[in-house]
From TrEMBL:
Residues 55-90 form the SWIM-type domain. One of its GO terms (molecular function) is helicase activity. SUPFAM superfamilies: P-loop containing nucleoside triphosphate hydrolases. It comes from Mariprofundus ferrooxydans PV-1. Keywords: ATP-binding, Helicase, Hydrolase, Metal-binding, Nucleotide-binding, Zinc, Zinc-finger. This is Superfamily II DNA/RNA helicase, SNF2 family protein. Residues 928-1087 form the Helicase C-terminal domain.
């Protein structure tokens, strides 16, 4: 506490002047001094002036007896109100008897004095003095200590709210001069008010940046703020500083950056010395503040700590004077050596984050990720922006000056600019931010990872030393090994899916999961999965892969691109956490990386077993059944092997060979193997279009006669339901599946086959929903067109065969369908192809051309139903009666014309009821025409070139209307065609895929080797005529295998004609020659056969 001098009127006049003193004395005599209180050397008073509210004022004296005052009046200080208060205090001093003075005092004890009395009582009772805050008051005054230059400490006042956890909320700066205003914050305690008033009154301590703690006054403030329990080092979040025990200090000379030296007290743990009187120390690690035993009187220690620095180049006389005047126990100044050197500085780049304060009241600091350039002169670093001729370095008792190398600085800046960096000061977006020009930035922060990946190495080669600071968010790691592990997955069918882990071992030994890292990277940048992005990535040497903790990993670009390529659907679906892959994906990964390179790949024995699925040639050969009445071609045997492998592994697939390559016989062979092996304990259900029902029955009878077949078709099929379990194969249709579902659902099936499986392409159709509910141990789809319009059709079949393998419908659309169909993403297309490859076996004619015979004949039959069937029976009965009557009256030989006319009408009903003349009303649709229009689009889609023959030109007109409606281009040739050359040339030149030809007009004389498919819409008596028509395509110059399809209606005269072609070729010839042969046209038994009723 600074003691007050004795007050006299003379001194008041000396301090304030005669005029001011006189007016003040008048105020005092008039009783304008309302309140007067002394508190620790600070006099507080209230003096009534001209305003209604009294003025508040404070008076104190410095250690040199200098008056310091403050008043709330307009004058502010050293005014008549201060003079009145001094006269009042002088009167207090003149009272002789202190007891009488106390007795003379009337009224309540002033608040400040009352607090002092309370504190005195606490001390006398042995209690520590502390302020008490009411529970309702949460705001606090905080005192923050901070370094101030090399030799001082300053205090800054903050105000913040006390939180429930004991910490403080957001703080704001509080200026102590505010305490001198009329309004004192209510949350201030008396002790806070005393601290703030003294700081505000002592202008020698204050500055814009805080209040220096030095001398006696600084010590008094230091003690008070430490006692408050709210004094912290540099941050409000640091522990509160407490009073500690005195420690001894050692006087030493300290060198500053200029080479000047000054005295300081050295502490054992490098504590901070506060130059108060006497000096104190601050242990920032333990948050302790206490006096220092300097072995010198307080006044001497204060002078020593504040002595001017002894300059490096001072004269010997100055050094001698200093040595002479130093007290005992204080060492002499250091004897320094001074030298000059010239070196080439090393450019150092520090990657860090700065937050420079912008100008203006509302402008907030902005964070910049920067490269800070400094130049290293043999260990002495200076910022690039430093401009000096010499760089001074202090090393012990040596002072070294280095010559500034401007050229080296310029080269460093040029190198940084060439790398893509530019000075922060040139950033036009933040004109209000003031920063040093040694900070360099990139145009976009997103460019930092690539800059570190590529440019850092170049800069290091140029001699740069690069350091990444902890606050810099873009940290680049490197790895010394990469490992891809492929194995069996848990929780998923092991024959369908596997598990992959991809890890990198960093240089420090840390192992990083890269699957998760890649998933996050792709999730933020989905375009990375495009084919163009992957191709561009492969062109790079390395990429910056972001990791979960914000770091980046320098990863081999080609390896990462291929991981993304082969696992594309995994990352695209967002489910990379499990890294569950299909077998083909895993095999592709293994094959790609097993040849060496940066990534080491390892796999389990399980994956080697799965390899067979991806390559049809590796599938073990199945032993063909003894009961097979056919010789399979090699590709057909491979198809049987594949189906057997799928059955063995409890899987399913799609047999998708081109039309005519024998899908049915392959499936029948597969079923027969199951029967002969004893595994066919339940029947096989085949669901097919109506047009294929009898084709299955016929081929089963021909090639696998040991398989019993039940056809569930027709109005009487319910009578056979009880026999289902007794047959090897049960045939039904898609419409009947829905009608008979309750019966079929109850049966356990060994194998469920969907022929022309595109019928379930609409997953929401009744047939598609019902077929998923059937109980079957094994499943197989057969189709020549697994996809007709869109990828959703393919998904529907796989969802039946292997539910979930291609995700759910929504996810499939996101991962595959939309990118492929709308965006044309080839990478996604490749990923889908890879995924389905083991489970979709498709061979085109061109792939197996060497195995195919020159000509393959295929019979396709269809049932007539409903009105067409009734019409046929009606015509058959009428024609049968007419023929019987003619034979009865004229005999068989003379009845040929009647018989031929009757048979023609029956054949016309088979082809299309509209061909029959004389029929009235609405005519039923043609089952055969329907079957044709199911076949033709598929053939055209496969790229086939088709010749379609019919005996009836009127039938060709009906077909012409259908193919036109279907959008199929065609040409036509009949007896009425005058220009025969043009349609032939158009077909041969590949302009159209379909040629409609009447049997008589085009059966001979044409060379149509562009065709590879021949369809005989209606059978003709003479097989030679059909053969001649077929030979329009199957002739010299044909370089493709030819498929010949004969379309029949099941159980009708057409089927009988086909049988008679083989049995009675001579009869057919004689009919063609209109009876020229010696053999009768037909026997009575033949006529009965031709007119056999439908079964």
């Amino acid at each position: 506490m600074t003691e007050w001098p004795r007050i006299s009127e003379k001194r008041i006049q000396q301090w304030l002047g005669r005029a001011c003193s006189t007016r003040g004395k008048a105020y005092y005599r008039l009783g304008h001094v309302l309140d007067l209180a002394m508190d620790d050397g600070l006099l507080a008073a209230s003096v009534r002036g001209k305003e209604s509210d009294p003025y508040k004022l404070h008076i104190r004296f410095t250690s040199k007896a200098e008056l310091v005052s403050h008043c709330s009046c307009p004058v502010g200080a050293d005014c008549k109100h201060v003079a009145a208060a001094l006269y009042a205090w002088m009167n207090e001093q003149d009272e002789v008897d202190a007891e009488a003075k106390a007795e003379a005092a009337t009224g309540p004890v002033p608040f400040a004095f009352g607090q002092w009395l309370g504190a005195l009582d606490q001390v006398r009772d042995g209690q520590p003095v502390r302020d008490e805050f009411p529970d309702s008051v949460k705001q606090r005054m905080l005192y923050i200590l901070q370094p101030n230059g090399e030799r001082n400490v300053r205090m800054q006042c903050l105000t913040a709210r006390l939180l429930k956890d004991g910490g403080y909320g957001k703080a704001s700066v509080y200026s102590p001069v505010n305490i001198l205003s009329h309004h004192t914050p209510q949350y201030l305690l008396a002790s806070d008010e005393r601290i703030l008033r003294e700081v505000a009154m002592d202008r020698s301590l204050g500055s814009l940046h805080g209040y220096r703690l030095q001398g006696e006054d600084g010590l008094r403030i230091l003690k008070r703020i430490v006692a408050s329990g709210r004094c912290h080092w540099q941050s409000k979040d640091a522990p509160a500083i407490k009073r500690g025990e005195k420690r001894a200090g050692e006087w030493r000379w300290q060198l500053n950056s200029r080479g000047d030296q000054y005295l300081t007290l050295h502490m054992p743990a490098d504590e901070i010395v506060i130059p108060t009187s006497p000096p104190w120390f601050l242990d920032v690690h333990k948050a302790i503040c206490a006096p220092i035993d300097s072995a010198q009187p307080a006044t001497v220690a204060e002078i020593l700590l504040n002595m001017p620095a002894v300059e490096l180049d001072c004269s010997d006389e100055v050094l001698a004077a200093v040595r002479k005047h130093l007290p005992p126990g204080v060492p002499a100044p250091l004897a320094l050596t001074h030298e000059r050197r010239q070196v080439t500085p090393i450019p150092r780049l520090q990657l860090t984050t700065i937050r420079p304060q912008g100008r203006g009241y509302y402008r907030k600091p902005e964070a910049f990720h920067v490269a800070s350039l400094c130049m290293d002169y043999d260990g002495k670093r200076i910022t690039h922006s430093s401009r000096t001729e010499m760089i001074r370095s202090i090393r012990g008792d040596r002072v070294i000056d280095y010559t500034y190398d401007a050229a080296a600085h310029a080269r460093a800046v040029d190198a940084l600019c060439a790398s893509g960096l530019f000075p922060l000061r040139e950033q036009s977006m933040t004109p209000a931010v003031e920063v040093d020009e040694h900070y360099f930035i990139l145009p976009d922060d997103d460019q930092w990872p690539d800059w570190m990946l590529y440019e850092c190495a170049d800069l290091k080669e140029q001699g740069f030393v690069i350091e990444v600071m902890d606050d810099f968010p873009f940290r680049m790691e490197t790895a010394h090994s990469w490992h891809l592990q492929l194995g069996e997955s848990s929780g998923v069918s092991s024959a369908l899916m596997g598990h992959a882990s991809f890890t990198a071992t960093l240089d420090d030994g840390e192992e990083v999961d890269l699957i998760d890292a890649l998933a996050r990277w792709v999730g933020n940048q989905p375009k990375l999965l495009s084919e163009a992005s992957l191709a561009a990535m492969r062109e790079q040497q390395s990429i910056a892969l972001p990791m979960a903790d914000g770091r980046f990993l320098a990863a081999p670009a080609d390896a990462i691109a291929n991981i993304l390529h082969y696992m594309l659907d995994v990352f695209a679906s967002g489910g990379a956490a499990e890294a569950t892959l299909s077998v083909p994906q895993m095999l592709a990964l293994e094959e790609h990386f097993e040849g060496g390179g940066a990534v080491q790949v390892s796999s389990t024995a399980w994956l080697q077993q799965m390899r067979q699925l991806a390559d049809i040639a590796r599938v073990p050969a199945a032993v063909l059944p003894a009961g097979l009445q056919a010789t399979l071609r090699d590709y057909q045997h491979e198809g049987v092997n594949w189906m057997q492998m799928l059955r063995q592994m409890q899987l399913a697939g799609i047999l998708a060979d081109d039309m005519g390559l024998g899908k049915t016989v392959q499936a029948l062979t597969h079923i027969l193997i199951e029967k002969e092996a004893g595994r066919l304990q339940q029947p096989t259900l085949v669901i097919a279009p109506t047009s294929l029902m009898h084709n299955w029955r016929r081929e089963a009878k021909k090639f696998t006669p040991d398989l019993s077949v039940l056809v569930l078709h027709g109005p009487n099929r319910m009578e056979r339901f009880a026999e289902i379990a007794d047959f090897d194969i049960v045939l039904t249709t898609y419409p009947l599946l829905v009608r008979d579902f309750e019966v079929l659902e109850q049966q356990q099936w060994h194998l469920l086959i969907l022929d022309e499986a595109q019928y379930i392409k609409n997953a929401s159709s009744k047939a598609a929903q019902r077929v998923r509910r059937l109980m079957a141990s094994h499943k197989l789809c057969i189709t020549g067109t697994p996809m007709e319009n869109h990828l959703g059709e393919l998904w529907a079949q796989f969802d039946f065969l292997l539910p979930g393998y291609l995700h759910d419908k929504r996810q499939f659309a996101k991962v595959f369908r939309k990118p492929i169909e709308i965006q044309g993403d080839q990478a996604r297309q490749n990923a889908l192809n890879m995924r389905i490859r083991p489970f979709l076996l498709r061979r085109g004619k061109d792939q197996v051309a060497l195995e195919l015979p020159d000509k393959t004949e295929i019979i396709r039959s269809v049932d007539m139903e409903g009105a067409q069937r009734e019409l046929y029976e009606s015509v058959r009965l009428a024609m049968q009666k007419r023929v019987r009557d003619a034979v009865a009256s004229m005999g068989v030989a003379q009845s040929q014309i009647v018989v031929l006319d009757a048979l023609m009408k029956m054949r016309q009903v088979c082809c299309d009821p509209r061909l029959v003349s004389g029929l009235q009303g609405a005519l039923p649709a043609s089952a055969k025409l329907t079957m044709l229009m199911e076949m033709l689009p598929e053939m055209i889609e496969e790229g086939r070139r088709v010749l379609l023959f019919s005996q009836f030109t009127s039938m060709l007109k009906l077909i012409e209307a259908e193919v036109t409606a279907a959008g199929i281009d065609y040409v036509k040739l009949t007896g009425q065609t005058r220009d025969r050359e043009t349609p032939v040339e158009r077909f041969q030149n590949g302009e159209v895929p379909l040629f409609l030809i009447s049997l008589k007009a085009g059966g001979v004389g044409l060379n149509l080797t562009a065709a590879d498919t021949v369809i005989h819409y209606d059978p003709w008596w003479n097989p030679a005529v059909e053969a001649q028509a077929t030979d329009r395509a199957h002739r010299i110059g044909q370089d493709k295998a030819v498929f010949v399809y004969k379309l029949l209606t099941e159980g009708t005269v057409e089927e009988r004609i086909l049988e008679m072609q083989d049995r009675k070729r001579e009869l057919a010839d004689s009919i063609h020659q209109q009876g020229a042969g010696k053999v009768p046209l037909w026997t009575p038994a033949d006529l009965e056969s031709l007119f056999t009723p439908l079964g």
